[in-house]
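The pair is quoted verbatim below.
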Amino acid sequence: MDIGTLRGIGTFVVFVAFIGVVLWAYSSKRKSSFDEAANLPFADEPPKSAKRDEQDSRSNKE
């Protein structure tokens, strides 16, 4: 086996792995998990009304 054959096999393995990741990422079964993960940065924010009430209470104390 020469280096060209090994490189060819390596390229094929990486290509198959890439296709597997693409199919996994665009699978309709994963959509709900990805949508939930996309909204995680916004999960810790309090509602806008709570923020406004907090600002009002701070301004009343001064």
The chain has a mean pLDDT of 84. The longest helix spans residues 3-25.
